[in-house]
Amino acid sequence: MEPLAVYGRSLIESNTNLSRSLSISILDQNRNEIPFETNSNSIEFFIPRDPNLRIPPMILTNETFHSLNLTTDLPISIHFEIKANFSYRFVYKFDKQSTFTNSIEVNQSYFTFMLDNQQTVGHRLLIFGLEEANQEYEYRVYSSGCYYLNKENEWKGDGLRVGPKTNLSHSHCFSTHLT
Question: What rounded mean pLDDT belongs to the chain?
Answer without folding.
Answer: 84
